[in-house]
Specification:
Blueprint: E1 21-25, H1 27-31, E2 38-48, E3 55-61, E4 67-71, E5 76-78, H2 81-89, H3 103-114
Antiparallel strand pairs: 1-2, 1-5, 2-3, 3-4
Length: 125
């Protein structure tokens, strides 16, 4: 019987820049099974470890504004703005049931109408 090739998921190398918003894990808390191991952070800087030559990142945790130094990029993932804004972009703004809209869509609608506009913008084709 021929041997089946083994596949392994490979995370592409991503270089983050100052201001990028990322999801990151506290490695020790994660592997020990402790709660609150995953957070959202903003990249403050990158640097190269003197001994290992590995690029590490310093982040500000957005929930607590704590500074996290030396975060391994293997435990970070980008949070693209398009993903964060998808609920607004796809909101059913012509829906009569406000409860059917996501909270972000309702916030956008309230903000737009509070600026003195009683009409919605024209729909995009």
């Amino acid at each position: 019987m021929p041997q089946q090739p083994q596949t392994q998921a490979v995370q592409p190398q991503i270089r983050y820049i100052k201001g990028d918003i990322v999801l990151f894990r506290n490695v020790e808390r994660f592997w020990l099974g402790k709660p609150d191991h995953t957070s959202v952070g903003r990249v403050e800087r990158s640097w190269q470890h003197v001994d290992t030559r590995k690029v590490l990142y310093d982040l500000t945790e957005l929930g607590s504004l704590s500074y996290r130094a030396g975060v391994d990029p293997n435990y970070m993932r980008p949070l693209p703005a398009a993903d964060a804004m998808r609920d607004i972009d796809t909101a059913p703004l012509n829906e009569t049931d406000i409860g059917a809209m996501t909270p972000a869509a309702v916030a956008w609608l309230r903000h737009h109408l509070a600026r003195g506009n009683s009409t919605l913008p024209a729909p995009h084709a």
